[in-house]
């Protein structure tokens, strides 16, 4: 069996993860591309048993905390599906500049695709205890505040911060 490139250990435990668009391209400034990510998480929650404890989507990367048996396969599926759908959307919108950058960023050894959307791998960090979970959730939710996009975490539309304030978020999550 091949070695997982995701470095996910003890898949029965929650993991904090980061996925980044190649070249840090600003793709998630379009509501339609964000919706593809949200829809994918919702699908995985309903069909794979994914527990999504928190997330934030910024213009060129996202952070999330999740848990599911075979988390590495779930993340690989998430990245493959979202990449294909987002590239399809960009082609429909004739976003030629972005598509050119995604084509250029394609690793030289990749022969099975025309574009590279996500950076290879995913930064995965196992959540060891309650303190670490709170720390990571706070980090995720504070990200847009630190960048100066909003004054309060729950005001960032593409985050689970509202869910933790008892407000309706864009998608259902598994509140910790």
UniProtKB/TrEMBL annotation:
Residues 10-143 form the Transposase IS200-like domain. InterPro entries: RAYT_transposase (IPR052715), Transposase_17 (IPR002686), Transposase_17_sf (IPR036515). NCBIfam families: REP_Tyr_transpos (NF047646). PANTHER family: REP-ASSOCIATED TYROSINE TRANSPOSASE. This is Transposase.
């Amino acid at each position: 069996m091949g070695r997982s490139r995701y470095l996910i250990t003890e898949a029965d435990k929650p993991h904090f993860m980061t996925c980044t668009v190649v070249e840090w391209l600003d793709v998630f400034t379009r509501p339609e591309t964000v919706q593809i990510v949200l829809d994918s998480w919702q699908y995985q929650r309903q069909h794979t048993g994914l527990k999504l404890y928190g997330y934030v989507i910024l213009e060129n990367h996202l952070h999330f905390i999740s848990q599911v048996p075979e988390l590495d396969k779930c993340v690989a599926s998430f990245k493959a599906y979202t990449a294909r759908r987002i590239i399809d959307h960009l082609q429909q919108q004739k976003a030629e500049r972005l598509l050119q950058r995604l084509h250029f960023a394609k690793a030289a050894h990749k022969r099975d695709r025309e574009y590279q959307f996500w950076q290879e791998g995913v930064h995965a960090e196992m959540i060891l205890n309650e303190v670490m979970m709170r720390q990571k959730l706070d980090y995720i939710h504070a990200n847009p505040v630190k960048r100066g996009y909003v004054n309060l975490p729950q005001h960032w539309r593409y985050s689970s911060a509202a869910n933790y304030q008892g407000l309706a978020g864009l998608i259902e999550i598994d509140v910790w």
